[in-house]
Specification:
Strand content: 15-25%
Helix content: 25-40%
Low-confidence stretches: none
Order of helices and strands: EEEEEHEEHHEHHHEEEHHHHHEHHHEEH
CATH topology of the largest domain: Nucleotidyltransferase, domain 5
Number of domains: 2
Mean pLDDT: 96
Shape: globular
Bound molecules: adenosine-5'-diphosphate
Length: 392
């Protein structure tokens, strides 16, 4: 059974075709610069990337190109070979407590959440619309970044703001990266041979969030109403005092929207270091003795340790910390510094294992709490959801 996992952004469309249930990747690809004359369509054929640059003015054209490309490169014989399409949708609000088979009503419901995710949800819908037109007979499933966190209790998801803001406008914590947190924590529970395990997942990529998972359920997470809340990231500030908005708006004669943009795009690693949003540059310059690169790293480590401490207390214990995504999977220094910062919990890193890549335990046998690297796989999670709903 072949399932297409799709992630549509405002000017890009990423896809992966998976053989299920074996979860083998048949091909993957990307359309970039949708809306431009020099858009690029890339697809992997027999492991080699094939790219064409051409005019792709909207998502409909992009999707047709993907579908035609699969046939042209003999990856599938006909469209009938595709059993289902799974779409990543960023914001599911309180409406979607599970993945869902897409219907006209579902599209309207996703649209009703546009205020909560103005940058992401409209782009996701554009991708869904285009695939529904290109593959009208195929089941289409929406998989939300927020669903996994819908198990949080009120004390974890509510802000201490006027309650009417929640009632009228849905102001609360939703959390994101849910598919990744779910995939990684399910895998960790298997490695721990304990479905009731208490786990903290550190999804550290360019966007980054932590999630406290108890017995397979998200009980708290660091991102909030939007992905801006939580730990500092590549370009996002994470938590700040909201009064900063007014101060900088006055001092620099900027609108609130512009200051918010600075907090989203010019802060985090990039803002503190003044060098880059990429952890590889930060660590290199830190090792060269650059003070601000060192600070950018140290602030991130401290904030992550703060969250780990708070989740440890909130869950009343901890079995494992899991690292995933670009930084979590690749940066041994970041992992070891985080684990060192919380060593009071009885964590002992195994430096040899921590210096390697791929799924593994990175703590010693004496360590009271285990730590793992587990590579994330959001596409597989999406494909699994399509199969689960297709069977119902
Ligand atoms: P996102 O999906 O949020 O864009 P990723 O999970 O792909 O992010 O992580 C990308 C980040 O991971 C890069 O910005 C970089 O800081 C960090 N990184 C560190 N080492 C590597 C590596 N070997 N390959 C890719 N990214 C890496």
């Amino acid at each position: 059974m072949k399932i297409l996992a799709v992630n549509a952004g405002s000017s890009s469309l990423k896809f992966q075709l998976l053989e299920m249930p074996s979860e083998e990747v048949i091909t993957s690809g990307l359309v970039e610069r949708i809306g431009y004359y020099n858009a690029v369509f890339t697809i992997k054929v027999n492991g080699e990337k094939v790219s064409v640059t051409q005019e792709i003015l909207d998502h409909k054209v992009a999707v047709q190109l993907v579908v035609d490309g699969l046939i042209k490169h003999h990856i599938i014989d006909s469209l009938e070979d595709i059993t289902g399409v799974g779409h990543r949708v960023v914001q599911g609000g309180e409406i979607f407590k599970d993945s869902v088979v897409i219907t006209d009503k579902v599209i309207d419901q996703i649209k009703s959440l546009n205020d909560l995710a103005p940058l992401h949800n409209p782009a996701n819908i554009t991708g869904i619309d285009a695939f529904r037109k290109a593959l009208p007979k195929v089941i289409q499933v929406g998989v939300f970044d927020t669903t996994f966190h819908q198990t949080m209790k009120e004390d974890a998801y509510l802000y201490a703001t006027p309650y009417e803001w929640y009632q009228k406008y849905g102001v609360r914590k939703y959390g994101f990266h849910g598919t990744s947190h779910q995939y990684v924590s399910e895998r960790a529970a298997i490695l721990l041979k304990n479905p009731k395990a208490k786990i903290i997942v550190c999804h550290l990529g360019n966007g980054a969030s932590l999630c406290a998972v108890d017995s397979g359920k998200s009980v708290d997470t660091s991102m909030g109403l939007t992905p801006l809340e939580g730990i500092p990231m590549g370009t996002r500030s994470g938590n700040v005092d909201p009064s900063i908005l007014m101060l900088i708006s006055d001092k620099e004669d900027k609108t609130y929207a512009q200051v918010l943009d600075d907090l989203n795009k010019k802060s985090g690693y990039l803002g503190v270091s003044g060098i880059s949003n990429d952890s590889r540059d930060i660590i290199r310059e830190m090792q060269n003795g650059d003070h601000r690169a060192t600070l950018a790293h140290q602030i991130q480590i401290k904030r992550i340790a703060d969250y780990i401490g708070s989740y440890y207390v909130y869950m009343g214990g901890l079995d494992a910390i899991v690292f995933t995504a670009g930084i979590g999977e690749n940066e041994s220094l970041v992992r070891s510094h985080i684990l060192n910062a919380v060593k009071v919990l009885g964590i002992e890193v195994d430096p040899e294992e921590n210096s390697k890549r791929g799924e593994r335990l990175i703590t010693t046998p004496q360590s009271k709490i285990k730590a793992f690297i587990i590579p994330t796989n959001e596409e597989v999670m999406i494909a699994r959801e399509v199969i689960r709903l297709e069977k119902n």
